[in-house]
Predict the structure.
Amino acid sequence: MNIEMIRAAATRIHGHALRTPLLNSGFLDEIAGRRIWIKPECLQHTGSFKFRGAYSALSALDPVSRANGVIAFSSGNHAQGVALAARMHGTSAVIIMPSDAPQLKIDNTRAYGAEVVLYKRGGEDRDEIGDRLSRERGLTLVKPFDEPEVIAGQGTTGLEIAQDANAMGITNADVIVCCGGGGLTSGIALALEADAPTLRVRPAEPEGFEDVARSLRSGVIESNAASSGNICDAIITPQPGVIPFPIMKRLCGPGLVISEDEALSAMAQAFLRLKLVAEPGGAAALAAALYRPDEIQGDDVIVTISGGNVDPAMFTRALEQL
Amino acid sequence: MNIEMIRAAATRIHGHALRTPLLNSGFLDEIAGRRIWIKPECLQHTGSFKFRGAYSALSALDPVSRANGVIAFSSGNHAQGVALAARMHGTSAVIIMPSDAPQLKIDNTRAYGAEVVLYKRGGEDRDEIGDRLSRERGLTLVKPFDEPEVIAGQGTTGLEIAQDANAMGITNADVIVCCGGGGLTSGIALALEADAPTLRVRPAEPEGFEDVARSLRSGVIESNAASSGNICDAIITPQPGVIPFPIMKRLCGPGLVISEDEALSAMAQAFLRLKLVAEPGGAAALAAALYRPDEIQGDDVIVTISGGNVDPAMFTRALEQL
């Protein structure tokens, strides 16, 4: 896993993924107490950065494997990313999703052309279902974050941040990244190490699911006590990924931790000041920048809004914060 | 009013206005029955394209006039655009707003540093207030659309559309523009005439306020019967502007007309599929593309989402369409 893989991924996704801008708002600067820049990956195809990694992984496969199709496990954004990337490569995708996944995310994954196989959480063994389907059909597994070509794709976000930060002369900034397994965080960290080495990458997580923050403190991979029960569903993972963790340990931290109410407030501010739709997990980094100013050192802060796949009821709940 | 003024405005606003991308979504393509591209000017500074024209006008003023300050009449987006552009030029702005303007827009205009003077609609004569203030303080009036340097600024949107359309090989497209007085529509039309002459510009307006559509049909400036009473407040103007109209007559049409419910549905689709916050008037062009497919000829359609300054209650109302 290295910078050259990220640069190669950038070449492959060029013209296929959206090159997102950096946005800002003086109103948010005032809340944050410093200049704040937003990388709006909610505008990315499928509504999250996950498309970058999925497209990177599909485009890096050998043609025979790719033609046989791919398989992924996901309840949400990775599912949609893999489904669309597979369609764009003219191949098929099987996505194994829990039957209690949000209906919109199931519908979208199907609408992008994937075959969705539902399993009962707690009952059926999804790995067994996946193994059987892979063997029977010769499908290639695309993991959500413990896969170098996926991390390389997410890292293209970091190349763009570096390019824009350098163009604007931003040299002393915290780059806060919404963090689940660490694919986006580690990819951005590698890209910035190469192209904007004075910027510091900080993972943001919800309270009770701050496995990355704790792992960075202790120096070893730590797990969360619970596996669900937070509105920031997109960034709830059991523990940091095996490939991302050493990269994060070397380049990132300390972690920032936000509450559910802060995630909802950040969604409301994104609506009001940026005209962006963020999902709760996608607003974690913005929440940290707005509501944890004392834990941030930079003159500037750059945050990812990593996804916007939120249902209307949850969004309305966020707007009630205004 | 010519293309050279638009190119000069583009040079002046470069690095100050946001260079917005073109977005798309396969889900919206399916509704529209053709490829649909979105120019998200809701992401522009102050939440609407109006910032482009305001910055263009302020930057084109002679230094002495600019230092004396500017004045504008507006209940909304032009107010915010002029206020921020004035602040960015280190000068002052007086904005004359009706006392029944949305509180958020009044608050924002003040927050951008402008002095807001409220008048009672129907009671006090706003022109008299404006004339008196201009004379007393030597302020320069920045009109919302009947002003060449404002139209030149709005036209930079068209230069960007042409650049992206040409890069993607889009040659047979309707470009639908949310249309009030015609500043944005005529500016885009002039830019496309020069840089992407096979594209057709079509104004979109709400039912009952389709003064531009009727004027284009009859060939002379026609007025609306009412001056308020539609949720698309940002694009409700009494009649087409004197400078924009001949440009639109030569280059644009026929006009497209949408209902309030269609504007709300388009806002909901922008939320769901684009992760963008559109205000009702800013969603008029998207509504026309989605719900008036039989009136569109192009293989592709390009639409502006011209603004996103909507209060949470109206946005929640739009989400109820889903």
About this structure: The longest helix of chain A spans residues 148-167. Residues 3-48+147-319 of chain A form a domain with the Rossmann fold fold (CATH 3.40.50.1100). Chain A is about 45% helix and 15% strand.
